Amino acid sequence: MRTALDSAILIDVLQPHKIFGPASKQALQNAWKTGSILVCDIAWAEIRAAFPHASQFSLAIAEIGIVFDPLKEASAELAGALWREYRRREGVRQAHVVADFLIGAHALLQADALLTRDRGFYRDYFRNLKIIDPSRPV
Fold first, then answer.
1. Among positive and negative, which fits the CA dihedral 83, 95, 60, 135?
2. Confidence band of 92 (pLDDT split at 50, 70, 90)
3. pTM (2 decimals)?
4. What distance in Å separates the CA atoms of residue 122 and residue 79, rounded to the nearest whole number?
5. Could you tell me the pLDDT band of residue 31, with boundaries at 50, 70 and 90?
6. Which of 55, 72, 75, 130 is the Cys-Cys partner for 113 at CB 3.0 to 4.6 Å?
């Protein structure tokens, strides 16, 4: 199984989050045991921003065994279409940025599931996407 990773999950683990860290770590280990962990270029950049030095980032990524999987054209196009729908629907109360849609579209079209704590948003806009949410019981 190919599991796409939302950046918050890895950040929970690497900068130990008291509430979400343990569950995110377990979910990450489960994903690794069942296949590969993919990170699109958008989430890759978000995760890199959490590290002061490139060497620390590279070491963490290598230790976990994360695979860089850039967005394909179809994923980017789907993200744009859904983001457009979201902006029309939500108007000025927008809480999500295009990066969230790119991560979701990548997971839907290039992976088998998305490991994230943002279940409601992704379930609403990516209805056929399998969501793994370590912050909520199954």
1. negative
2. low
3. 0.90
4. 12
5. very high
6. 130
